[in-house]
Amino acid sequence: MSESLKSCPHCHSPYGYSLGTGLYACPECEHQWNPDEQKVEDGIKVIDAHGNELRDGDSVIVIKDLPVKGAPKPIKAGTKVRNIRLTDGDHNISCKIDGFGSMALKSEFVKKS
Prior knowledge:
This protein has no helices and eleven strands. By secondary structure, it is mainly β. The chain folds into two domains: about 1-40, N-terminal domain of TfIIb (Single Sheet); about 45-110, Roll (SH3 type barrels).
């Protein structure tokens, strides 16, 4: 019996597993949910610098040099960022950038690739 993993709706971890009772659990945030329940969410609508809608998992390209506090060099324009996650707030993109680590970016400084 092969069970598939489901993405956690709370923390977006890809390791949600079945509890065998119709519920799924996340090993990272301990959230439990029923994937059959139709939950209507407003969702987060994030628009890039060119007006394209961004979604979780998209790849984007930085359109201008961005200074980083505590780093000796900025994130250069043209840097490709893969597998973004959308968040609430002023810096509405959460991502990892090679050489910089985990970062929060503003959608106005990226374009969808």
